[in-house]
UniProtKB/TrEMBL annotation:
Protein name, UniProt field: Uncharacterized protein
Basic and acidic residues composition bias: residue spans: 127-139
Region: Disordered, residue numbers: 21-44, 110-150
Single Gene Ontology MF annotation: DNA binding
A Pfam entry, by short name: YbaB_DNA_bd
InterPro entries the record matches: YbaB-like_sf, YbaB/EbfC
Amino acid sequence: MQPIEPDQWLAQYGAKIEQAKQQAEQARDQLGGVGGSASSPDGMITVTVNATGVLTDLRIKPEARGMDPGQIASEILAASSKAQREASGRVVQIMTDFVGESPALDFVKQQMPNGYAGDGTDEEEPKSELERKDTRPDDEYFTNPPDVMA
């Protein structure tokens, strides 16, 4: 093996650094446009989130005025969760293309809402406390209470 000239080594190293810089800029640009959007099943509520899952837009149709506030809150939470998973999936895909399967990708996946892995092994989002809440009238609740010892 022939020894490499210092100038040649430096040129190769500089080219690698420039390529890494370009790839990082490309990933940054792609991630900057990532977001997710989801609507309630009836289309009354639509939420939009950015790449980190932060709510950036919330639209509630005027027809939703007659809805129960608890139902509206539940629909907002469910739609937000769907939008976050959509955005997370895009982030994971972009980062997979950028860093490949690696500890860096594992770290990114751990930062996604609810540990989203994007590999098809994710469980469905757990129901929020509001969705788990028993909303039956008191008479019905006490006549047929939930089984708490199961």
